């Protein structure tokens, strides 16, 4: 049993020695240096990206409240404008009903609501 272990150990050492002769030590050292250089660059890139992510997070935290408030304001303004234009259309319809000669050329049909639809995407 002991001699079997010694023969396996000797065989392992011989295989290791032969593998060692397959590749030149200078080439291995060159590969190690390149790997070290790449690792340094990757660490630098990781640090830059971490700082950028922290900066982006701070900016988002600062601006998200303003953005939410402005969106709420714009929605309120749109609602108010929709109400105003509905009132104007109603008043124009009453004027046409009361004074049909006030708009004799029928141009009011085309002018009732020429606002662009803000909810549809632009082409």
TrEMBL record:
GO biological process: lysosome localization
Gene Ontology, cellular component aspect: BORC complex
KxDL domain: residues covered: 19-103
InterPro entries: KXD1-like, KxDL_dom
Pfam family, one: KxDL
Homology family: Belongs to the KXD1 family.
PANTHER family xref list: KXDL MOTIF-CONTAINING PROTEIN 1
Protein name: KxDL domain-containing protein
Species: Ensete ventricosum
